[in-house]
Amino acid sequence: MTKTLSDLGLNVSRETLGKLERFASLFQKWARAINLVAPSTKESLWERHIADSAQIFKLAPESKHWIDLGSGGGFPGVITAILLSDQGDGWVDLVESNHKKAGFLRVALNETGARAAVHPIRIEEAQKKLVNCDAISARALADLDQLLVFAAPWAERNPSLRCYFHKGRDYLGEIDKARGRWHFDLVIHQSAIEADSVILELANIRRIGQPASGAE
Ligand SMILES: C[S@@+](CC[C@H](N)C(=O)[O-])C[C@H]1O[C@@H](n2cnc3c(N)ncnc32)[C@H](O)[C@@H]1O
After folding, report:
1. Ligand 1 atom closest to residue 123's alpha carbon, by position in its atom list
2. What pTM was estimated for this model as a whole?
């Protein structure tokens, strides 16, 4: 059965639903041209990508400024931005180094009025350019250890930063590996969409051997 946003406990306005529908049809139109993985049906686009992305917004409704790393075709960052617009505030910075995908993201933001900006740069550059945020998201980008390397500069600048990473069935191995180099508090949320997937919520991230923020 296809999971909808209301199955996730997310009740959005008619206007926001319209923006999500607009985004879905743009995504389907552009997918082949810019080499995005196009879901085989409209239902699977809604469940496997839109509802899957919306889960993180549900986990962190108080986060107002997000950075989405490796946004690709807009998951989860554009969905977060559209859902934030339902609340009338908040912002998402989308970091995507592929210029064709960044071009699509720009069109999608223009046509949906989502509260976000596209940065067609590498994450390593964004670490210097984008100074602060409350939360970081990433899906299908890298293993957990590499995601922590990406997130570390923002965690250093904001001790209350939280990260939300979608992960598939190998997540326990990734956590083990990352624990060898990093301290972090972790909550594992079972995905409401995929039986063997999770969303990892991390806080208090610091490299082993590095003093906690504020420590002498
Ligand atoms: C597999 S796709 C996932 C896209 C999207 N997050 C999703 O779940 O559908 C990974 C994306 O990250 C981008 N990417 C990979 N490494 C990057 C880097 N160092 N800086 C910026 N973007 C990067 C790629 O161009 C690609 O679009």
Report:
1. 20
2. 0.95
